[in-house]
Amino acid sequence: MREKRRSGRTRLRPRSAVATLTAAGLVGLAALTGCDGQPGATRDGRQPPRPSPSPTPVWDRSPASVAAVGDSITRGFDACELLADCPEASWATGTDTAVRSLAQRLLGPASAAEHSWNHARTGARMADLPGQMTQAAARGPELVAVMVGANDACRARPELMTPVADFTRSFTAAMGALRRTAPKAQVYVSSVPDLMRLWSTGRGNPLGRQIWKLGICASMLGNAEDMSEVAQTRRARVHDRVVAYNEALKSVCAKDRLCRYDGGAVFDYRFTGRQLSHWDWFHPSKDGQSRLAEIAYRNVTSSRPPR
């Protein structure tokens, strides 16, 4: 039944108006939700993909245990007394609070004493690393700190330096030995120090030159004052071999997602007389060991790997 016409238009009853608005709303909702009427569904009835959760970082910046492998530097040789290891001063696992080793910085002094192990050996070369890695892996460490290679270049003469191919194979074998027992262990790899820079720093010290005559790293440090072309060529060969060793370390490490190379930080570090042992002017002093620990800690705890 219609009401009176006004201005030529027919006015609907209130109930009819409500029904009309409700129907229009349902049509709009159906258009938004899709044919099946489920909120968020696409037109073919499928639910849109949900955002993926943030991936868990591969690198743990706070490992709970540390094992160290390598050579005399990691044993703290000549850091405390003449011609003797001083593992308490080791940059990697030492307990000397003056050094503040990597383990101490990561775990704290008390925990570091119980959850860090030093398997390095004075005189070790890269060929010895697979055996050391096997020992380290048996401890189940969350982080293995590696510094080795100086002795491969420090020989009686350059011809006796470890070939780069052999160096690379041995490091690859060492990583394989670790992975067989400790597949989830992280590995921090230090670059080999710049032996040319050590020669340049220490050659101005008369005592250092006398000690070097005993045969310390003769391929680089022998006849320290000789500036002839032959001597310069000899030192350049050793320097180039160290550079090649570091490239090998970087390359092999890059193939393992749980391995982090220091980006050449130790090689680039400018050791001064204060950072060198006053007994041989070659190995790091306690201060030098502390600088190595600082470099390692910075790289291990960085949110991004060194370049």
Describe this structure in words.
By secondary structure, the protein is an alpha/beta fold. It contains 13 helices and five strands. A five-stranded parallel beta sheet has the order 2-1-3-4-5, with helices on both faces. Helix 5 (129-137) runs parallel beside helix 7 and helix 7 packs parallel to helix 11. The chain is globular and about 70 Å long. The model is unreliable at 1-42 (pLDDT under 50).
- Shape, please? globular
What string, H for helix and E for strand, traces the elements in order?
Answer: HEHHHEHEHHEHHHHEHH
Radius of gyration computed on alpha carbons: 33 Å
- Count the helices. How many? 13
- DSSP strand count: 5
The pLDDT mean sits at 87
Low-pLDDT ranges: 1-42
Structural class: alpha/beta
Assembly state (oligomeric):
single chain
> How much strand content do the residues show?
5-15%
How far apart lie the N and C ends? 85 Å
Q: Can you list the strand order of the major beta sheet?
A: 2-1-3-4-5
Helix content: 40-55%
What composes the largest sheet?
Answer: 5 strands, parallel
